[in-house]
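Team,

Forwarding the record for the chain on the shared tracking sheet. I've put the sequence and predicted structure together so nobody has to dig through attachments.
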Amino acid sequence: MQRFDVAIVGAGLAGLTLARQLVRETDKSVAILERRPAPSDRPKVGESTVQLAGYYLSRVLGLERLLFDEHYLKYNLRFYWPAEGLSGDAFEHYSQCYLRRISNLCSFQIDRGRFEQSLYEELSREPQVTLVAAVEGLDVTIQPGSTPHQVHFQHNGEVEQFEATWLVDASGRRRLLQKKLGLQQKSPVRHGASFLWVEGNVDIERLTARSHRATRLDPRRSEVGHMPLWMATNHFMGEGWWLWVIPLRQRTSLGLVFDHRVVEFSEVSSADRLLDWVDTHLPLFSSDLRARTVIGHAGFRDYAYDTRLSLSPDRWAATGEAARFSDPLYSPGSDLIALHNTMIVDCIERDSSDDLTVLCRRREALLQALHDAYLPSYHRSYDALGDAETFAMKYGWELAIYFAFYVFPFINDLFSEDRFLPAFLRRFAQLGQLNANVQALVSGYFQWKKQQGMTAGPIVDFELSKLAPVRRAERCFYRVGIDADTARSILDEQLAGLEEFSRFLVAHVAAVVLDRAAAKRDRGFVAALNLEAPDFDRAALEKLWSQHADGEEATWSFDTTALDLFHQPAAPLATHRKAGG
């Protein structure tokens, strides 16, 4: 019977990247078992990465050249809404929200099938790694303590068995270990998805009747910039739904994600039904997509789930979709793979020299906290996706958290630093309550705007770095190689800035609801605002104003006028209409 230090079930993105990390950082022997014959280049969902995963794949795993040679550098995340009074059948009819400057931490649009093929081929040449594909009847026997686990399977008609000190489930949505051990747990997120791939590059800027020259010289370039927008993960937004457009080599991935309260899965359950839905709600795509060949289609009626445990001192773990999945809105799937893999490698590497029970408990607490922090964004304020202003508030807030509390510790290897984690988790818990309140704020504000008929406004181009807390958090990318004490000080600064940011968001909402710009500049009123339960009742806010406004200037550490752009008079329609010639 063959014996390995680590057996990984599944040769998808999670399992292959874990094996790559183990090869680079340890001397452990690794077996990978895969039920498919081998990874193929077929289309596979989950192509978009953001900064944390981009850093993990390119720098931690050393795959930078592969990513640049075979996949697209990504131009951030960008978001679009149809403007009031326009038909929505041309790209220039849409408001935009974005980061104009490409991130200093590269992220990529990954053709998953092709990427997994390349990784598989590289690992097949590693002496530490044994790859066994086309296995059947795979099952595992989990042993407690230090007794090796057993992996049973059939290969080439023969019954085989491996032993492994560590067993890692990377089997994806089959979730081998979670089901075997009864660890499945429901997620509060109840969303579905339907997605397809089409041949060729869907260039969103060409979805117009304007001439190439008119598009190139559009005055909006002053704000939007000149980078090819098709390189972004582009999101077309509505209340409780969004459509992604992701460029890949020789094809484009498109997918609708939706709250079941606004879209029924049956409406979009096939490629034709999905295209019909897009024709109705986003007519700018109609003529382009109908002329393309659909390569493949798939979907999930309900895609989110959780687990009670993903990392055990009994020397088993789960990573990727074999562990937990929340929502694809901000492309977090590969981030979670990076986080899980890094914690798993840390425990495997330190197995013999540390108290494994304590080590696994701490790493699992971190993984659970980082996952759970996403959830209010998805199940409390998905409606706010339907308005450019409320989404700019929501995403600006979430970006500042992500840059400072996810990316910054990860690029400094701080999540594997025992001196850092207790203080981090305390600060993260404080941030958790703030986040829940802000998510309630933007959802409540969206519903108020909807009642007032204010959600469909004129065209606005909003650059998210106009929000100072976003700029400040992004500067953390340049704080590298620091110790735990310095890191804690940096996070204290960021937490204080986020507390001020949350108060500003409440004050901005109050100023709009009261139609009183002075509300966010009045010291007494701003200090009296309830950050835990913002009240959108105009009479209550008027009472608060009459009781606490003192005419003194409120002190802010940043410009509080950035969001006023959403309440400026509309630009002349001629600037945005379709132009021929």
